[in-house]
Design goal:
By secondary structure, this protein is an alpha/beta fold. It is built from 15 helices and 14 strands. The protein is elongated.
């Protein structure tokens, strides 16, 4: 298969065409015969029309992948040499790993598996998941033997939604294989599309562990500054000013307080703690960080209500506008958004909350959270609101003069710390 990669005749299949799978399919589709497989016909229809609603892949990039075709037909995967699985790995309502998408994708791969094929997983999982949970599914539905008839690899995704600097081809990717020969294949395949190359590790478990701690580390650092924000609020000093001052030291890590959601930082630590607990170890630091970050939405809601009371507002049926509902700035992804927690917290106090987000699909927001949202900032009458919360730092919000727009008595709360300090009543 190394020769096929070298001479450009290898056939690649991608299972899952979301934030991770589509950029991969496009890059491979520039060089190799590539099939992008997805079970959502609406997604396939949009991609065939040259549109990516995630905004991660530009129309010109979609067009440049001349060897890529999109399909929902299982038969189109049967002649592939390499299959790459890039599906979500969420948690359930109890923060336990939900491997349903991964199992379903493995079942799909197993049904088309043939001798000599390599299946590479990109989905974030706990160490051991690929070989202990996914491989048995592949064997069951293929009737083939692992590391004898077929092989596996793991190359964890490092896509950062909304980030146009650290894109797929510009980042170094970890690669691994279930055997040295399969690791050679995985490394050669990814090296062929990445300008920054690959970093090979000794086993699939090491690669899985490296991925899951990347986001766990960020989660803990953000939890630390979120706790600092609570402490400094009680002291009566500005958190951002403190962090700017501390940041003048050469080795100070610069993190900002905020809402930690999305499909990575707010989820991945639970995969690691799940594995630890299954082995009889109770992780204290990681779970403490998760508790702090999961509670920040409610904390913001309470802070806003306190400010409204101080300004003489009656809280029941007060009108509040929240700017932003996606999990991060300049990204339409609403999965596991903790901006929603702020809305829920305010609703518990009896506030009437409106949401404006220029990037979030109103239909998706309604389907996922039962909330009405609108996209047009220009249609917003700021004067009718008692409080405005800037929850997500979309570029469309960054030059707003909210104090002029709302009037002097409205409460303005800046979760992200991007507005001029003199304009706001409170911020993290």
């Amino acid at each position: 298969m190394l020769d096929a990669i070298k001479n450009g005749t290898v056939k690649v299949g991608l299972i899952g065409l979301g934030y991770v799978g589509l950029p991969l399919a496009v890059e491979f589709g520039k060089k190799y015969d590539t099939v992008g497989f997805d079970i959502k016909e609406s997604r396939l229809k949009m991609l065939r029309a040259g549109q990516d609603l995630t905004l991660e892949t530009a129309p010109e990039d979609l067009k440049s992948a001349r060897f890529l075709r999109y399909s929902g037909d299982l038969n189109d995967l049967r002649d592939r040499d390499i299959l790459i699985v890039a599906v979500p790995t969420p948690v359930d309502r109890y923060n336990n790993p939900d491997l349903t998408p991964l199992y379903k994708a493995s079942e799909t791969a197993g049904k088309v598996l043939h001798k000599g094929m390599v299946v590479v997983y990109e989905s974030t999982v706990y160490p051991g998941c690929t070989e202990e949970d996914c491989v048995p599914v592949l064997e069951k539905f293929s009737g083939l033997k692992f590391n004898q008839d077929f092989f596996c690899g793991y190359s964890p995704e490092r896509i950062n939604p909304g980030d146009k600097e650290h894109t797929l081809t510009r980042i170094k990717k970890i690669v691994s294989g279930s055997t040295p020969a399969s690791a050679d294949v995985v490394q050669a395949l990814y090296d062929s599309i990445l300008s920054s190359g690959t970093y090979r590790v000794s086993s699939i478990k090491v690669a899985e562990a490296a991925k899951v701690i990347e986001n766990s580390q960020r989660d803990l650092n953000i939890a630390f500054v979120n706790e600092l924000a609570k402490i400094f609020h009680l002291i009566g000093i500005d958190t951002h000013e403190v962090l700017e001052a501390a940041g003048t030291k050469w080795n100070f890590l610069k993190f900002q307080p905020g809402l930690v959601g999305g499909h990575c930082i707010g989820v991945d630590p639970y995969y690691l703690t799940h594995k630890a607990q299954a082995l009889g170890y109770h992780p204290e630091v990681i779970l403490a960080g998760r508790r702090i970050n999961d509670g920040m939405g409610k904390y913001v809601a309470e802070a806003v209500v306190k400010l409204m009371i101080r300004k003489g507002y009656k809280i029941l049926h007060s009108k509040v506008l929240q700017l932003g509902i996606t999990f991060k700035e300049n990204c339409p992804d609403i999965r596991n958004s903790h901006a929603v927690d702020v809305v829920r917290g305010l609703q518990e106090f009896g506030c009437d909350v409106d949401v404006c987000d220029p990037l979030a699909d109103p239909a998706e927001v309604m389907n996922a959270y039962g909330l009405v949202s609108h996209r047009k900032l220009s249609d917003t009458d700021f004067r009718k609101y008692d409080a405005v919360i800037l929850a997500v730092a979309h570029k469309e919000f960054q030059n707003l003069d909210l104090r002029t727009a709302t009037g002097e008595n409205a409460v303005i709360f800046d979760v992200k710390g991007i507005l001029p300090r003199e304009q706001v009543d409170g911020r993290l």
